[in-house]
Amino acid sequence: MVCEFLDELQGIIDDRIRHEDSGSYTRRLADGGVDLISKKVGEEAVEVVVAAMRGDRGWVIRETADLMYHVLVLLRFMDIKFDDVCKELISRHMARVGANG
To answer: CA distances (Å), 55 to each of 30, 50, 52, 71, in order?
Structure first.
């Protein structure tokens, strides 16, 4: 499955953040801290909304990729694994399934 790449991307993000001498964009985001990373997440989320409202499927895909990347950087910076988010989604789903019996 293509989404298995998220695990690989998390590893790439981890590696770039760990290497403080790196001039990578990921490292620059980490150097800017939670404020800069959060700002970028917000900007990308707005761009997804604008793209969707214009009905441009390709643009939505590109902007969603940007958003996902920045969310992964934010999660890593806050020491949260994407698996933790997935577990929360599963928990919510199971609660709804259980409630609907």
So the answer is: 33, 9, 5, 23
Token pair for 14: 């981890």
Give the distance from CA 50 to its chain's centroid: 18
Q: What is the CATH number of domain 2-99?
A: 1.10.287.1080
Span 24-71, pLDDT tens digits: 999 999 999 999 999 999 999 999 999 999 999 999 999 999 999 999
Q: Are 5 and 13 spatial neighbours (Cβ–Cβ below 8 Å)?
A: no
Q: 67: which residues sit within 8 A by CB, 6+ positions away?
A: 41, 44, 45, 47, 48
Residue for token pair 């499955």: 1
